[in-house]
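User: Quick sanity check before I run a bigger batch. Here is a single chain. Can you write out its predicted 3D structure?
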Amino acid sequence: MSRRLIITLAAVSVASALPTAALASSHVVAQVSTKLYQGTVYLSRSLSSGHSYRIDISAPGRKPFIGGGVEHYIGVARGRLTDGNKSFNLKASTPYSYTVRPPSSAHLSEWILAVDVQVRSGSHLTVKLVDLGKTK
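Assistant: Done. Predicted structure follows.
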């Protein structure tokens, strides 16, 4: 009986350790949700150079939404100071994911992301920014 208990406990401890190791490379760095039924979310965050990110947009059920975002970056590439902006539009239904990759191979000293999303039906809306880790 005690041998069976030890094997069961070992199996449970191994199984509980597996999901945490798989999720260790990505984590939520920002999350914004609507209050009541306003339907609009604004998220702004400074990003780490060399990392990739994912924007996850969710609402109860499948809700059509529109939105957009802008990335602003400053860095050094090939010995020269570089800066720029990249904008993108979002028009889809929830749940939806959009991947944000570093703008170039430059060493970025500043990288900022701003996203504004509006659900058309006036429902609850959540926007998450997930750090996917270093880009390879």
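The first strand starts at residue 27 and ends at 33.

User: Great, the batch can go ahead then.
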